[in-house]
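Morning!

As promised:
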Amino acid sequence: MKKLIALLLVAIMCLSILAGCGGNTDDKTIAENNETTQSGVDSTDDSTEESTDAPKVEITYPLTDASDITWAVRDGLDLHADYFEVSESPFHTGLATHTGVNIDWQFVPIGSSASAWYNLLLQEETLPTIISGTNLNYVELETDGLIYDLTAYLPQYAPDYWEWLNSDEEILNSVKTIDGKILGFFNGRAEENAYDAGPFIRKDWLEECDLEIPVTLEDWETVLRAFKERYGATLSMQKGYFTTFVAMASGTGAMGGATIKFYVDENGKIQCAQLTEEWVELVHTLQRWYADDLIDPDITSVSKSKLLDKCLEDEVGLTFFDAAFSSRIPQESAMIGSTAEWIPIGYPVKEKGDEVKYSEYISKVHLDQCTVITKSASEEELITALKLLNYGYCEEGLRYWNFGTEGVTYTFDDNGEEQWTDLILNDARGKTNAVNRYSVLNSEVAPSVQLAHYAEIRYDEITQEAYAIWKENCTTAQYKVPELRYTSDEETMLSDLLTAIDTYLEPMVKKYIMGQLPFEDAYADSLEALGLSQVIEIMQTAYDRAYGN
Amino acid sequence: MKQKKSFFLRVRQDFQRHKWKYLIIIPIIVYFILFEYKPMYGIIIAFKKYRSSLGIAESPWVGFDNFERFLTDSYFWRAVRNTFTINILDLIFSFPVPIFLALLLNEVKKPWFKKTIQTVTYLPHFVAAVVMCGLIENFCLSQGLFNDIIVWFGGERSNLLANSDNYYLIYTASDIWKSAGWGSIIYLAALAGVDQEQYEAAKIDGAGRFKQMMYVTLPSLMPMISMKIVLQLGKILKGGGQKTLLLYQPLTYDVADVISSYVYRKGMGDGDFSFSTAVGIFNSVVNVIFLLAANKAVKKMGESGIF
C-alpha cells in the first residue's frame, strides 16, 4: 500500500514538471481578425524613384493574412516597470490588436547588459524578424547581409512612412546612408517640440530688486550682480549644460562652448564655433563673471538633484533646466514652505531683437536609434513587418503611439483635438506614469513621430508656456549641423581627432574661466595641430554628400 | 645503476595513492582551461576589426592599425604617465598603511578595544566604490564637509575636485580609507603565527617593545610583504578605471585621465572591442615586464618572490 502511494506521488510530481513545459504562448498576443482587406498590394511597382505622382498605396489595419513576427527590443520599447508579461502591458497588447499581427516580443533579460545580449543575438542562426534599439550598427549589419535594404519596398508596403520621409528633404537626406539606402524605420519629432530646455529665473527676487526680466547678456550680468549682492546667490546649472555654454552663448553669436562645436553658415559651409570672435568674447565675459563670484564654483560638478537642492536653498537665482523643472519646482518649493517663484525666460541675446542661433535643440529625426528587419524574415514576414512598422506613421497609428486608444486613453474634444480621458488623468500613480504605460512615444526608438500636440497635452500649462518662450526668435534649426553619415574609416578618424581636441579644449577653457590658468591666445594653433581642419574637411564631405550643392 | 621510473608511471602511482586529491583539483583545472586559457584565442581580435555579426574568425585582419591608433595619439602617453603615477603613489602611501595598522593592533592588549578598531577599519571596504565617490564628490563641493573643515582651519572654500592640485591627495586618501582595514587582516593573520619564544628571547636580550617590533615582528612579515609588492607592481598599468571615471572631470584631465578612462572616451562608439583589446595587450605586456623584474629584484634581496 505504502509503495503504491509513493509511486502515485512520484507520478503526480512528474506530471506537474511536464506542465511547466508549455510553449511560450503567454508572450504571443492573439489578434482579432476583422473583415477589412488590404488594398493596392499588387498594383504599384516597387521602384526606388520618389514618384510623387503615383497614387499613394493605402494600407488598412488591422491586417489580414499577417504572418507571425518576432520583435526583439534592445531598448526603448521595453515593458513598463509595472509589468512583467507582455499580456499585462496595454501598449503592447493594443499594438497587436490594432495592427492585427501576432507579435512575439523579446526583451533584454533583467540584469543583463543590453550590448552583451545584442552581440549574442547576432550570432544566432535565425534572427528575430524585427530588431529595435540604440546603437544597432545597422549600416554594418546591412553590409554583412544580415538586414534588408528597405528602400525598394517602402513606397508599396510602408507608404505612410515613405510619405513622411519625403515630406522634408532634411529628414530624407539624413536617413539615407552614403549609398542612398534606407535601412530602417526612424523616430521623428515635430519641430514644435524641439526646444525643451531653457533658462529659468527667480521672479520674486526680480521684483524685490525692482528689475525687469533680463533679455540681453548684459541684463543677465546686472541681474546676477544684484542677486549676488542681495541674496548671495549665483548662476548655476548642470555641468553638461555649462560645458556647452548653451545658456549663455545662444544669441550672442558664439555658437559653442567648452567642447568643440560646429555650425553651418549661410553658404552651406561647416564652421568651427570656437574660431569666432564672439566665442572668445564670451569666454572672457564668463571669466570675469566667475572672478566676481557670480557663477557657482561647483558648476563643473553639479548634478541635477544637487542643482535642485541649491535652487530650493536659495543659493541660485538664475539657472538652465529642462521643461520638467517648471512643474517640479513649484511642487518642491511648496513642500518646504518656500515662497520662491520661478519663471522660464528667453535665451539671452547680444542686442534686443537678435536671433537665437544656438540653443538646446532636439533634431527632427534620430539616427542612432532604428528599427530594422533582418534577412531571417521570409518574403511574407518581410511584407508583414513593413506594414506593421508603417502603422506608426499612418494617421491612426500616429495617434496610437502618441496617445493610446481612442475612447480608452483619449477622446476628441470640440476642436477635434485629442484630450486625455479620466483613465489617464485620474490614474493613481499620476498622469506621467499612466501615459508611459499606454504610449511609448517618449522613446527615441519608437517607429513613429512625436506630434506637436503630444507635448501640448503631455505637459502642464507652465511647461507649455516654457516651450513657447524658448521657441521665440530661435533660428537654431538653420545653423545646426544635421546628423551626418560617415564611412567606417571616417568615423574612426573623426572619433580619434575629436577626443584629442576635446581633451585639450575643455580643460583649457574651464581652467581659464575658473581662474586657474591664463588664456592660451594661440589656442587656434593648438587646435590646428590636433587636426581641426581635417575634422572640418571630413564633416564637409559628408555634408555635401547628403545635401550636395 | 637504478633506472629512473618513467614520468607517466610515476604519475600513475601517485594518482593511485592520492586519487581524491587529483579528482578534487580537476574542476579547478577545467575552470582555468575554459575561462582563462581558451578565451586567450580571442586576443587575435586586437589585430582585426571585430564585428559581432561576423564573429571572431570572419572579421577582417587589420594588422597593427589598432595599436597605431593609440600609440600615436597625443594624449595617450599622458594617460600612461598618470596611470603610473596613481599606482606608484598607491604603492608608496597606501601599501604601508595596513602593515602599520597590523603592527599597532598587534600591540594592543585589551581585546574589546582591538576588536572595535578592527571592525571600524574593516567597514569602509564594504562601501561600494560608487557610493564612496558620491560621498566624496558631495563633501568636496564648496559648501561640503571638507570645505567646512578647511574653513575651520582658516582656509577658503572651493570646489576641491575641480582643482588638479587636490586630485592625487583625494584619490590616494580615499584609497587608504577604504582598503587599509581589510588589508591589515592578512598581516594580522601572519603575525598571529609568530613564534612567541622569539619575543621572549628578544626580551631577555634587553629589547624594548619598539626593538622587538623591528627585529622580530617585521622580519616575520617580510615574506608576505615582498610577495604583495611583487603582485602590486604586476598591476602597475592596471586600474584607475571605475574610480577615475567617478571622480575625474575635464578640469582635472591633466592628472586624472588614466588609460582606461581615456580609452573609454575614445571608444565611446559602443562595441569597439578590437581597440580595447589592443590597449589591453599593451597594458598586460608592461605589467608582465614589471612583474618579472620585481620578482627577480625581490629574490636577489633574499626574500621569497612569487615564483
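Chain B touches chain A through 37 residues (CB under 8 Å).

Hope this helps with the figure draft.
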